Amino acid sequence: MTDTAVPEHPHDADGPAATSGPDPFASEFDLSDPAFITDPAAGERWLSGPRPVCRGKFADGSDIWVATGYQDVRKVLGEPTLRSRPPGDSHRQSMLSRGVPEDIVDMFDSTLLTMDGADHMRVRRLVTRALSARRMQALSPAIARVAERLLDGLAAEPEPDLIAHYAHPLAIIVICELLGVDEEYREQWREWSETLAQALRPDPEQFAPAVRGMAGVTRKLIDARRAAPRDDLISELVEAQEDDSERLNDDELVALAMVLVQAGHETVRNLIALGALALLQHPDQLRLFKENPGIGDRAVAELVRHTAPVKHTFRRFATEPVEIGGVTVRPGEAVQVVLAAANRDPAEFEHPERLDLTREHNPHLGFGRGAHYCLGGSLALIEGEIALTSLFDRFPDLRPAVDPAEIAPRYLLAMQRFPVLLSPEEEK
After folding, report:
1. What single Pfam family name could you report for this chain, choosing any that match (predicted)?
2. Can you give the pLDDT at residue 245?
3. Is residue 5 domain-resident?
């Protein structure tokens, strides 16, 4: 959207005569409209349609700017004057308006996702150090063992579901392994994590107990690791509390652990499920994936670009006027970026609609960019490669048990089910 096509800002126009045709600031990207979330056409419009910056609405009904073009999204993610922390108490009020209880709001009002500047760098530095390459590589054998065990279970299921019996449990087990969540709590955390995944539109009666339960267990784990450290992420972060220069208080540690659980498992769950579906829908690429294990890194990066396990980021708020894609975002206004659309922008990617596991130019934004680049991006790639390789090695004849159109995800909803057939004999 350029200044010559539309007014710089809605209230810059001199009344109805200032533009002709449809209102260019109509709220088409409307997260407050349930139909937008469940209508597949709405999502497809943002993946394949025009790429100007336009107006929209957030889940609480507030106005936002929406950026979908690759260069616009890239600028938003790297722009230092756009902050994650909403102005004033708007973040708190937004959660309260969606029915989140006040004590839960307090817990989520200042997390890594809504921190900026020195506080954000302090916490992020600690987590980055804990999520070292050594720790990630050390997890690979454990991930492979988890995958094989779950695949054994998948084969024993009378009606195997790739999400319920493989993608979801693998993702939550690995993140629990990383954090150091004891076995006795893992099934409960799995249930809580499913509830927390609905944070955009939470059911207060389910959401609040899940948050309180996970927070309570996390505090128990913090106390236990303080008394007897282990080789896990919680122990390492507790140890960092002894460093006064970068001290994390227990409330910050609890919030951080919960954010890592939610971000870490939901992204991987979606990557495995969507990646498997995409490969099954592109037999030539699936054959390439099976026959060329050396392309694993590149292949999974392309699956991230093509399937968009994370569709969009959290809002960014302007602290001063900033130009994005020909419009001026004013102080206090919010910008939402659609990663799924940016990663299919034909101005950046040749034949973006194609799944091409050999794609060489792939500067995808699937894990974001800049200060808030996904901390677990490297782990997600490792998990995705191991999970998909193990899956198709074990079940080379795997295929959907239903028409893919029945299970394909709606725009903002993850795939909920993925019934599969594991062998040719099941066709009889």
Report:
1. p450
2. 55
3. no
CA distance 72 to 55: 14
Query: For residues 344 and 178, what is the distance between their CA atoms, to the nearest angstrom?
Result: 32
Q: Partners of 324 in the beta sheet?
A: 327
Closest-CA residue to 326 (of 65, 62, 23): 65
3-state secondary structure of 230: coil
pLDDT for 261 equals: 78
pLDDT top residue among 322 and 87: 322
Q: Of 129, 255, 235, which Cα lies nearest the Cα of 181? A: 235
Residue 371 contacts by C-beta under 8 Å, 6 or more apart in sequence? Answer: 116, 120, 121, 124
- Classify residue 3: in a domain, yes or no: no
How many whole angstroms separate alpha carbon 202 and alpha carbon 98?
A: 7
What 3-state DSSP class applies to 67? strand
Task: Look at residue 374 and tell me if it is in a domain.
Answer: yes
Maximum mean pLDDT: which of 89-98, 145-154, 373-382:
145-154
Give CA–CA dist 87/78, Å, rounded: 19
Contact criterion met (CB below 8 Å) for 1 and 24: yes
Binning pLDDT at 50, 70 and 90, where does residue 11 land?
A: very low
Q: What is the CA radius of gyration of the chain?
A: 22
pLDDT higher for 164 or 61? 164
Q: What is the pTM of this model?
A: 0.85
Cα–Cα distance for residue pair 241/395, rounded to 1 Å: 46
| The pLDDT value given to residue 10 | 33
Residue with tokens 């009606």: 159
Residue that is written with structure tokens 């282990």 in the block: 230
Contact indicator for 236, 230 with CB cutoff of 8 Å: no
| Domains: count for the chain | 1
56 vs 394, residue with greater confidence? 394
Cα 389 vs. chain centroid, distance in angstroms? 22
Separation between Cα atoms, residue 196 and residue 168, nearest integer Å = 14
pLDDT, position 12 = 32
The residue range of the domain holding 40 is 10-427
Task: Work out the percent of the chain whose per-residue pLDDT is above 90.
Answer: 39
Sign of CA dihedral 393, 170, 373, 129: negative
The CATH code of the domain that includes 216 is: 1.10.630.10
Whether 1 maps to a domain, the answer reads no
